[in-house]
Amino acid sequence: MMAEWQLPVLAFLLSLVAILDAVEFEREKVCYATNQDPYLHFATKTAYEFVYGKKKYQPIPNCSPKQIWVLARHGTRYPTQEEIVKLRNLSKLRDIIVRNHEERRTGSLCEKDIENLKEWQYNVAESEERNLTIQGWNEQRLLAMRIKTNFHSILDGPYSPEKFTIVSTNTTRTMLSAKAFIEGMFGEDPDIPELVINNTVIKPYKGCDRWKKEVDHNPKTSEEMELFSKSAIMNTVVANVSRRLGFLSNLTESDLHNMFMMCAFGKSWDYYKVSPWCAAFTTEELKLMEYSRDLWHYYKSGYGSELNYKIGCPAVRDMYERFERLANNEPEKNGVFYFTHSTAVNTVLTRLGIAKDPFQLKHDNYFSSLKRKWQTSLIGPFNANLQAIFYKCTDGDENRVSFFLNEHLVNYEGCDVGLCSWRYLQQKLKSVVDPSSCNRDFCFYSSSSIVRTNLSTILSSLLLIFSVMNFLT
Hints:
With 473 residues, the protein is of the alpha/beta class.
């Protein structure tokens, strides 16, 4: 039985625990809505505005640009049809979160973040799936204007088919991106023939059976991402987010993914407005969610698969052959502009060796990968673009090249602070772009391999039948 003097002490200790719990609860109520420095890196759903290079372009002394070659991802888009349905269903989850805070008093979001969630509306129709947004249009238009300012000596003047090549893949979002870029480069309603549509060079994975089977539809491609999502650290994220939103039991991985995607899309659609669903996560949790997406893209379109090098080769070959003609003083275009998708941009970066880490990204090396180069928020946001500029110079090497990724100068390996000798690149890339290997022939399984596979299957079946008959007799 407890002594009489112990009762006040116990009451004091219980009160102290309650106070500390209340302090901890209030401490967690950090308002995302009033955060002056929110984390804005959401992998490939990152808004270009937050990551592109804003440093003024510096002309290279004694060098004149002769061609700019650009491979650009489309601007900000709406979600896929499947994503639209899932994100719309977040309204049900939102209603429960609000009740958790206002009635059950179990959540720890601040009042302003709850108000933002209450006001959140999702008005994206399924008919708008993957379409370019207004922000996406403006991103491309403004990019073109900046490029024209930087390289006005070769880009000034009206459009001419002798001076410019503009090609898009066969999707609405890339074609509209190209048109927005054209408006920024040449003004409204320029006299330009119908847009050239061609997937061969800038979307070579389209119809590539081998890549689809061995990479895109291969369960191993998502293996590292899935292992990471089931790791102890991600289980902690699920538990913390669930508690923060007022749930007594854990939300699902799918719930967290949908909230993360809505957070990302919301911010990319409106730079200056708070994206309410971001309040579900701390900065560290957003970084972990970002890493999960980086793992996916690393294996789907980056250094995680050898086939991705092959997919990126045709565009690199196109650039190489154009620069080779310029080096030989043969006629070439002033500007070459391609409008494509994130997979194409990522695979070209892979083929060129840009953003390559000295280690493989894995599910168990997050903390050693915090300063990784393969961070898709920085290399593959909406509107991602690789610019390659060929120069003629009067001092030192006559022919030089520089690369810009999202308007940041690339410190390319083997080059002088980002300025490369064409002779060096020529030696580095010549075997890579050899037409005998740099093509789409690998995409299609040969008839002999199909025959071998079929024979192997038939023989295996016959052996099984023979074994069963042998057993029965």
